[in-house]
Design a protein that fits this description.
With 431 residues, the chain is an alpha/beta fold. It is built from twelve helices and 20 strands. It has two domains: 208 residues, FAD/NAD(P)-binding domain; 151 residues, D-Amino Acid Oxidase, subunit A, domain 2 (D-Amino Acid Oxidase, Chain A, domain 2, 2-Layer Sandwich), CATH 3.30.9. 34% of the residues lie in helices and 24% in strands. A nine-stranded mixed beta sheet has the order 1-18-14-17-16-15-6-8-7. Strands 2, 3, 10, 11, 12, 13, 19 and 20 form an eight-stranded mixed beta sheet that branches. Strands 4-9-5 form a three-stranded antiparallel beta sheet, with no helix packed on it. Flavin-adenine dinucleotide binds next to helix 2, helix 3, strand 14, strand 18 and helix 9.
Amino acid sequence: MRLENWWERTLLEKKPKFCALLQEDISCSFLVLGGGVAGLHAALSLVEAGKEIVLLEKSICGGSSSGRSSGFLTPDSELEVYQMLRRYGISGAKKVWSIPVQGVEIIRSTAEKYKISCDLEKQDSFFVGIRKQGEEAVRKEAKAHLDLGLPYTSYSQESIGQALGTSSYTAGLRTTDTFAINMMLYCYGLKQVLLKKGVRIFENSEVLSLDSTTAHTKKGKVTGKSIIVCIDKMKEKVSPLARKSYHAQTFLAMSTVLSDEQVHKLFPDGKCMVWDSQLIYSYFRLTKDNRLLVGGGSVLTTYDPWYFESSIIIEKVIRDLKKNFPFLEHLTFEYYWPGQIDITKDIMPIVDYDPEDKNKIFVLGNPGLPWAAFSGGYAAALALGKKDVWKNYLGMDRKFFIPDEVQFFLGKIPSFAINNVYSKYYQVDER
Ligand SMILES: Cc1cc2nc3c(=O)[nH]c(=O)nc-3n(C[C@H](O)[C@H](O)[C@H](O)COP(=O)(O)OP(=O)(O)OC[C@H]3O[C@@H](n4cnc5c(N)ncnc54)[C@H](O)[C@@H]3O)c2cc1C
């Protein structure tokens, strides 16, 4: 397997044009930092409102989490319905669940409206249980769907073979209205839309420091009346708010093209995007041209940068998958690549004003693509002076199990690890 992001390959096949780096000092009304899904959607909302925008991106638009992602476009993410129900109660969970649901629709409708060629394809979402514990997790998730009035189909170990070519899973929950997407191509397409609408985009232009009105790069600076920060793995030099997010590691691999027979055996009832019930879950889906995309991580390596370029973890994920689907035993995986998902301590993103400086808005720790699309649009709304209606859920002064003062003594990695597990399994928010 070669260490290369397969999505980049699909972009290069299109002979893409990249934007020049910033080499001058300029000013604008709205400055967006970061060209992932969040930053691009912030810029789209602003330009659709007739505003003048500059966007600075460290590498290429979509070059970080967004363009490395597996492209499961589903409201499900690190935040399951069961978790939301426990944390927020029925009415709160309904409200919060509407965020990623809107996010899916924002991306789908944007791709459709601007005819962005990004392999968008309807695929159901499939949450599967591993062992007895997993069966219980699926049962709880199904009950939470029922309580919130969300449609689903459930499968037992006996019936799961109707939808997946295995009987290794102990239960399954399937939902519709979800999509598979090539997010690298989506980001590239959205960048073209923004350029056509007059947004000035500078790629290869890392922001090295940020003061109240100005972002400084190596060769130039941009002064903005209002600044929206949508960058990942933020350094303290850019803002001390970097303490509010950290990243969890996952790995992906892409196979050669499956035969029609293998595709039918794998998904006898149509293509699905599948993930399992483990704390650090494994996942797989087919691309539009029927390659198998597989991903996963491990508890030990989630926060450990030492493994970043190693293939050890993804090889184990592939071995486990082949045990569940023996007819894929000889399938070759050609590419693998790592990715780091930014998350906050309680897994909900932060979209809020800088407490020190109200003309800066920070978008931190989006736990999924739909969340990022929504957060970008919401940050733009705040920059345009709209009310901060999501403050209770997305505000940065919400209560965390491990507050910043304790994190200071405990260290960042232990604080995030403990708080992430607490939020996933135990947290109940004030209502
Ligand atoms: C391997 C992997 C698989 C995933 N799979 C899925 C999935 O299937 N479904 C799903 O919903 N979610 C998935 N996610 C999560 C999803 O990708 C993220 O939630 C989403 O992309 C976050 O978007 P963003 O715009 O907030 O961040 P990013 O896409 O990371 O964008 C941030 C941008 O800021 C830029 N930047 C960073 N520092 C600077 C700086 N100093 N100056 C200028 N620019 C800077 C970066 O280069 C980057 O382009 C996955 C993530 C990973 C890593």
